[in-house]
Amino acid sequence: MAKAAKTIKVEQTRSAIRRQHSQRSTLVGLKLNKIGRVAELQDTPETRGMIAKVQHLVRVIDET
Fold first, then answer.
1. Tens digit of each residue's pLDDT (9 = 90 or more) over 2-14
2. pTM of the complete model
3. The domain spanning residue 51 has which CATH number?
4. What are φ and ψ of residue 49, in 5° steps?
5. Dihedral sign, CA of 27, 12, 40, 8?
6. How many domains are there within the chain?
7. What residues contact 18, with CB distance under 8 A and at least 6 apart?
8. Which of 20, 51, 53, 54 lies at a 20 to 30 A Cα distance from 8?
9. All residues at 6 or more sequence positions from 61 whose CB lies less than 8 Å from its CB, including other chains
């Protein structure tokens, strides 16, 4: 049996207006582009790094 991949749910809580282009691109990479959007992503070090980069714009809802 294969192990189920861990996932993490992230919600965008603040706008990307007047933010650096790299932060906007990071939000798009996280499948977020509007306030209130929720994305379920694989829990990898890369994803964690992207969340850390825009931690002031998003919140982690659930880790499974």
1. 677 899 999 999 9
2. 0.89
3. 3.30.1390.20
4. -65, -40
5. positive
6. 1
7. none
8. 20
9. 9, 10, 11, 38
